[in-house]
Queue: 3 jobs
Job 1
Amino acid sequence: MEIAIVVVFILGYLAIALEHPLHIDKAASALVLGVVCWAIFVLGVDAIPSFLQHEYAVFQDENTMLAADEFKPMFLEHRLLHHLSEIASILFFLMGAMAIVETVDAHEGFRVITDKIKTTNKVKLLWILTVLTFFFSAVLDNLTTTIVMVSLLRKLIEDKKTRWFFVGFLVIAANAGGAWSPIGDVTTTMLWIKKQLPSTPYIIQHLILPSITTVLVPLIFLSFRMKGNVTRPAARGEHEEGNPASKKERMTIFILGLAGLLFVPVFKTVTHLPPFMGMMLSLGVIWAVTEIMHKRKSMAAKKQLTVLWVLRKIDTGSVLFFLGILLGVAAMQEAGLLRQAAGWLDSTIGNIYAINLAIGLLSAIVDNVPLVAAAQGMYPIAAEGVFAANGDFWLFLAYCAGTGGSALIIGSAAGVAAMGLERIDFIWYMKNLSLLAILGYLAGAGVFMLLSA
């Protein structure tokens, strides 16, 4: 069974990577990958895996009315729905963020920023956008920041391949920016919530320099290689056809959209509800405001400014692609494959720095969340030493799991979002940006180890 799941995952992964030569949309490949992996697991599992035995016993105690032969299939369905709830929270978060960003974009709200960026020089523009992305990601999180920056880049760069390069590099910047903040990346958040890294100032103090290095090294390299200027798309004039929003409305929606995105981590901290709940609240408020703002306009004038119209523009294919990938990773997790991988790393490598470096690069292939969860389960919090709260192992794990996924476009939530929104080719990213991402990743890791010595 395990071998079959791995084979299907690899074949699905190759189909996603070869999307353009095969002429099969990556969302279709991802959905087949996810569902078939689960089907193989459910049909092929002989006994409930040992690490799930406790949960299985609890499930039996809570469902005593079931017949004996119903326990296992119902428990496996229960596990699928458990993962689906986590996946759905990510998808609703993604859809909410996309809807808010598209609403701001429909009102030409990003002109507030793009009009202030006058340069067309590629190197200067890359530096400006990288700095913005790095610090936005620490506050908004890397996924939301990527969605925002993709919208900005569409206003700044007309040529598709040039824009792909900027988007791809900003994925690296977003992942690095999220790694040093408790709310910037889901894996750092996991370690923060579960008390491996309970001190926010300590996280920032020890991870910000490695994270800056992760971006700075490839950025300096590119500064000597990139030449020329970008061509900006023509901006639509105020009240020009297709842009019925006034300057005041544009500014209002931009401020409201940015405030709504910034509100999400605050809402999570105060209520302890999942982030998608804060995102849905922000979307609801913006929806209500736009309805009131445009209620006196003609249907033709306000049509494209409404959230209902914006929702039709959301790339459903990207959402389904996300669903398929996360289902496939969840099946591997349930089959115990990720735990086996983590255990193999522990027994074969042993050195904590090498283990974390390997986990980071492995997260470029499979989701970093279950890898970090497996590491949390393998190593209890110690009273002192590298495995103590705020210890070097947990700090380095946060850095590696947060930034290592940049090695491949599919290796992080930010990368998957960028791939879906801009239709970036997997092979193209690997040829043009993977080595730069790995170079920055290793440089940042080196800085962390020097500071820890």
Job 2
Amino acid sequence: MAMKIRLARGGSKKRPFYRIVAADSRMPRDGRFIEKLGTYNPLLPKDSEERVTMNMDRINYWLGEGAQPTDRISRMLEAAGAIEKKDRNNPKKAEPGQKAKDRAQEKADKLAAAEEAPAVEAAVEEAPAVEAAAEEAPAAEAAVEEAPAAEAAVEEAPAVEAEKK
């Protein structure tokens, strides 16, 4: 029989509360267990003494019987000093996800394109640049002329509504 020391969830919805239990590994998470070994209340502050309570005598007994703690329980036992710390290796921990990599690539592409654009514009002669500025000026004047026409249309609309009444 494979024994586990694990968390069994209790509490209501959105208010978790866990029992630390010794259970057969084939039983459901919240199902039958052999012995309650402590409690864990994640809603309490991390420095609270009541956040994790463990009966260390019974936990050591079950560890001696060959019970395997889950990862979360082993971290709690390491913090309590009951077992030695394990070396954990997660090389992908600091690596960004695929979307973040894609965004960084797009940003690098835009930056490279922005650096190339001024170099191309500097190579163009000054005369076409003056002609382009002259062409843009009438377009700006036309935009100014269109604005009063839009205001006049707005002023006419209330008058039409008043006539309908």
Job 3
Amino acid sequence: MRKKRAYRAADVKNVRLERVLASSPSGTVSVGLDVGKFEVLAVVRWADGTFERPWKVKNPSEIRQLVRLLREVSVKHALMVTMESTGTYGDALRQALTDAELEIRRVGGKAVSDYAEIFDGVPSKHAGKDAAIMAELAALGKSWPWPYHGRGDREAEMAYWVDWLDAQQSIEMLWIGRLESLVARHWPEVTRLLDLTSATLLQMLAFYGGPSEVVGDDEAAGRLARWGRGPLKADKIQKILQSASETMGVRQGVQDIQRIKQYATAALSAYRETPKARRKLCHLGAFEK
């Protein structure tokens, strides 16, 4: 049943399109798609400003059914399908619509939000309202072409390394945050001598796990001299060793040492991945070296 403002959704598998098309007014049809993780709500807007009841579509299992129905509508009417640019949940649907050679349009999320009260006099949301607003904005010329285009090899590789860099930086900061409280508890003096994000300190913590293990190693000075991106000066090494032997930190148990070793190892692994990703992105021309 066609109404000016209809929100109660019908399952897409129960739509009888031949009945809908039999009495449809002539003119361009716009369809708004409100995409969620598990469900898509599709609303058809006819050229006379009336709307079909929303179609409820399972995402992604009923995408083919929706595309088939829209293809049938496009045989009789000029058709625009409109979506918001939000997340990745709609990518599979957008690809399927493009493959079906249907015209896809995009509207901004802010425009949909701003138009909510103008649309039906109330700012609140109802099932299918956003989809209906998208359809109306498209009909009013407030949308832009948005066909799906797969990434080329270079673009895909660049996107991969950007994502990898972002993930590794986030992982590093997560473990640094956990280490910070542990080091402040058991060896607070060492962060006055080395930054917790330095490769030298992370390697030292990953290897020793705490000050007592440093004190017990006759080769600690030599190891410290080799660790890090640049060699530490002798006086800095001596200050680190002295801080380990004189620390006011809380004495560690076996599990305390093991925890710091594991956290530092995880942080160090992420720390080492970030320059690799940056070099790849430089090579791809993402930014200057």
